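Lecture 7 notes: from sequence to structure.
We start with the chain below.
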Amino acid sequence: MAEHKQRIVSVLLGVEGGLILLGAVLVGLTGTAIFPFDSFVGTDASVAALVLGAAFVMAFRTPTRTWINLAILYNALTIVFGLVKWGTNFGIRLTLTSTIVSCIFLVCFVVLYPRSGEEMRFSPTA
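Predicted structure tokens for the same chain:
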């Protein structure tokens, strides 16, 4: 059973990483100059999202607890931010899609989180 959980977590990380990459590219290509808060502090949110998405995709081969913890943190923060945006009418386009998708991923990662004694690692030959 633990091997099936590893494979499912691996696929979840890969799929979520791909979705993050797609979102980052879309933000980078269609971003607006009205609120470029990220560039004011010397960062670029779409590049950061590209790195996180790529990291999740690369974690496909070695889904350790660290990657699962990062995915849980990302999804929890996405849900909180989505609910704040929705509740305060912040932004031009309000959509619950990212919140709903993050809820699905969060539930999956929490349910599949390795219990004590379980190690989430694929062998190199798997």
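Points to note: Residues 2-28+45-111 form one domain. Confidence is low (pLDDT under 50) at residues 122-126.
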